[in-house]
Amino acid sequence: MEALKFETTILENGIIQIPEIAKYKNQKVQIFVIPENFLLEKSEKSNEQYIEEFINTWVGKFSVIETDDIRYNAIIGKDK
Fold this sequence. Notes:
The protein is mainly alpha-helical and 80 residues long. It contains 3 helices and no strands. The protein has helices at 36-43, 47-58, 70-76.
């Protein structure tokens, strides 16, 4: 399978101009439209922002760990 990537602008009337790809004449193709800034928005986030989003998403979803619990101490090896 071959994939082509090129940048173009969608005209005001909705027409997309693409380079000559005559070898695909009369064949079905799939077209994906991804806004140019889509990938930039994702990559501009710092690791700290991703971590903060993760914490904000999952905070409160897990119970608080009781560090005095016998099972907890056995798992981490503090019961010896």
